[in-house]
UniProtKB/TrEMBL annotation:
Organism whose genome encodes this protein: Shimia haliotis
Protein name, entry field: Transcriptional regulator, AraC family with amidase-like domain
Spans traversing the lipid bilayer: none
One Gene Ontology molecular-function label: sequence-specific DNA binding
Entry coiled-coil feature ranges: none
Length: 320
């Protein structure tokens, strides 16, 4: 995937330093889970033009580990030498085999160096077995949820895609890992950046993929985003979008400002320009054709808006 020009500052809440993420892998980890954890962070870095996230692959002893499908990974370091902002524990398959005293001791020690612990897939079992989920709400891969609840009564087991309880984060599987990381991106750097990441990966209902979607305000914003996404080539007036969303223009503006930190007009323009950017990078369409496909009758108008948002022109991107 090619590099994209960075996005404007209103799309994110700035952070002084990148979040340092340790990803602890065990033999039999899931490639799918790993990709859904790391790739959204990589995309957030790329789209923002900043190092928002910095991740390190770890194992207990720094020896190579092999995924369930045979992909070998050489870790950057061993767990006991690492520290950071969050540790992601990722055993996936064969997790019971890894739940020995060495893993317990290593995880308990790591909890003093990583303020947040995140368990992906069956990683919740290892954290619970180490006493690190006692008194917390947590989830696990749903096939293991009943056994998990019976084995660890000190943990409140919940059937959710992911659960965030203070400084403990747990996730039910590979697909949910993407949702969790997307939620964290939105929480830390703004929902609009999370939306751009979702759209970049063409996630199902990506026009509705922002972390506020479960709230009434979030549902209104999601409906409006979907209407906008369906009318990029022939843009609708904002009052029409509000009407199709079932609210007044004033309500839509207030909800979108609160959820995404930008007005409907700004968000709509951003969706159209994001499509323009993708067409510039990934196709050989002329600038005039791209302008038409993104709702600009005049290529010069599209180019001006493009440069205002991305700091460069379509032609300059192609020349580089």
């Amino acid at each position: 995937m090619r590099n994209y020009p960075c996005i404007m500052q209103f799309w994110q809440k700035t952070s002084a330093a990148p979040q340092r993420i340790g990803v602890l892998l065990f033999e039999g980890f899931s490639n799918h889970c790993l990709a859904n954890t790391v790739e959204p962070m990589r995309a957030a870095n790329m789209l923002s033009g900043k190092a928002l996230y910095d991740w390190t692959f770890l194992s207990l002893d720094a020896q190579p580990v092999q995924s369930s499908s045979g992909l070998p990974v050489a870790p950057h370091d061993r767990l006991d030498a690492a520290r950071g902002d969050m540790l992601v524990v990722m055993p996936s398959y064969g997790f019971r085999h890894h739940a020995g005293w060495k893993t317990q001791a290593a995880l308990r020690s790591a909890a003093t160096r990583f303020p947040k612990l995140c368990a992906m897939d069956t990683g919740s079992w290892l954290l619970a077995h180490s006493g690190l989920l006692d008194g917390h709400r947590a989830t696990i891969h749903w096939e293991e949820l009943t056994n998990f609840a019976e084995r660890f009564p000190e943990v409140e087991a919940i059937r959710e895609r992911f659960v965030i309880d203070d400084n403990r984060l747990t996730c039910s599987g590979a697909m949910a890992a993407f949702d969790l990381i997307l939620h964290l991106i939105g929480q830390t750097h703004g929902q609009a950046l999370a939306l751009e990441v979702a759209q970049l990966f063409m996630t199902r209902d990506s026009a509705r993929s922002h972390a506020g979607g479960a709230t009434p305000a979030g549902r209104i914003v999601n409906r409006a985003l979907a209407v906008m996404q369906e009318h990029l080539e022939n843009p609708l007036p904002i009052p029409d979008i509000a009407r199709r969303t079932g609210v007044t223009q004033k309500t839509l503006e207030a909800r979108m400002k609160a959820e995404l930190g930008a007005t409907p007009t700004t968000v709509y323009r951003r969706q159209r320009l994001s499509l323009a950017r993708k067409l510039v990078v990934d196709t050989d369409l002329s600038v005039a054709e791209i302008a038409l496909r993104t709702g600009y009758g005049n290529p010069a108008a599209m180019t001006r808006a493009f440069k205002a948002d991305f700091g460069t022109t379509p032609s300059q991107i192609r020349q580089s």
